[in-house]
Specification:
With 80 residues, the chain is α+β, with helices and mostly antiparallel strands. 31% of the residues lie in helices and 25% in strands.
Length: 80
Protein backbone atom coordinates (compact mmCIF):
# COMPACT_ATOMS: atom_id res chain seq x y z
CA UNK A 1 0.00 0.00 0.00
CA UNK A 2 1.29 3.42 -0.96
CA UNK A 3 1.05 6.55 1.16
CA UNK A 4 -0.23 9.52 -0.80
CA UNK A 5 1.56 12.76 0.00
CA UNK A 6 0.73 16.16 -1.40
CA UNK A 7 3.17 19.02 -1.18
CA UNK A 8 1.43 22.38 -1.25
CA UNK A 9 3.64 25.19 -2.52
CA UNK A 10 3.19 28.79 -3.39
CA UNK A 11 3.84 29.42 -7.05
CA UNK A 12 7.37 30.66 -6.38
CA UNK A 13 8.46 27.23 -5.06
CA UNK A 14 6.84 24.97 -7.60
CA UNK A 15 7.80 21.41 -8.47
CA UNK A 16 11.22 19.87 -8.11
CA UNK A 17 11.67 21.16 -4.60
CA UNK A 18 14.15 19.88 -2.02
CA UNK A 19 11.11 18.98 0.10
CA UNK A 20 10.15 16.24 -2.35
CA UNK A 21 13.71 14.92 -2.41
CA UNK A 22 13.83 14.88 1.40
CA UNK A 23 10.53 12.98 1.69
CA UNK A 24 11.57 10.48 -1.00
CA UNK A 25 14.88 9.89 0.82
CA UNK A 26 13.18 9.28 4.17
CA UNK A 27 10.65 6.94 2.55
CA UNK A 28 13.38 4.98 0.74
CA UNK A 29 15.47 4.63 3.90
CA UNK A 30 12.45 3.17 5.68
CA UNK A 31 11.08 1.05 2.82
CA UNK A 32 7.85 3.03 2.64
CA UNK A 33 6.08 3.21 -0.69
CA UNK A 34 4.85 6.72 -1.37
CA UNK A 35 3.22 8.70 -4.09
CA UNK A 36 3.94 12.43 -4.14
CA UNK A 37 1.97 15.10 -5.90
CA UNK A 38 3.10 18.72 -5.85
CA UNK A 39 0.44 21.40 -6.06
CA UNK A 40 1.11 25.09 -6.55
CA UNK A 41 -2.09 26.30 -8.16
CA UNK A 42 -3.88 28.49 -5.61
CA UNK A 43 -7.29 26.97 -6.42
CA UNK A 44 -5.94 23.45 -5.84
CA UNK A 45 -4.12 24.33 -2.62
CA UNK A 46 -7.13 26.24 -1.27
CA UNK A 47 -9.10 22.98 -1.23
CA UNK A 48 -6.99 21.93 1.76
CA UNK A 49 -7.90 25.00 3.80
CA UNK A 50 -4.43 26.36 4.36
CA UNK A 51 -2.53 29.36 3.13
CA UNK A 52 0.64 28.28 4.91
CA UNK A 53 3.30 27.16 2.45
CA UNK A 54 4.91 24.79 2.12
CA UNK A 55 2.51 22.30 3.67
CA UNK A 56 2.15 18.55 3.45
CA UNK A 57 -1.09 16.61 3.15
CA UNK A 58 -1.12 13.01 4.31
CA UNK A 59 -3.99 10.88 5.48
CA UNK A 60 -6.38 13.80 5.06
CA UNK A 61 -4.37 15.94 7.50
CA UNK A 62 -2.53 19.14 6.62
CA UNK A 63 0.89 19.78 8.20
CA UNK A 64 2.93 22.97 8.18
CA UNK A 65 6.20 21.74 6.69
CA UNK A 66 8.20 24.40 8.53
CA UNK A 67 7.18 22.81 11.85
CA UNK A 68 8.56 19.41 10.76
CA UNK A 69 12.17 19.99 11.69
CA UNK A 70 13.32 16.38 11.99
CA UNK A 71 13.23 13.36 9.70
CA UNK A 72 11.56 11.47 12.55
CA UNK A 73 8.59 13.87 12.44
CA UNK A 74 8.21 13.37 8.69
CA UNK A 75 8.56 9.61 9.12
CA UNK A 76 5.65 9.61 11.57
CA UNK A 77 3.49 11.27 8.89
CA UNK A 78 4.58 8.76 6.25
CA UNK A 79 3.65 5.89 8.55
CA UNK A 80 0.02 6.94 8.94
Amino acid sequence: MSTDIKILHSSCCASGSPIKERIEKIAAENSIEISIEELSDIQETAKYGTTTFPSLVAGGEVYDYRKLSTDKEILSILNQ
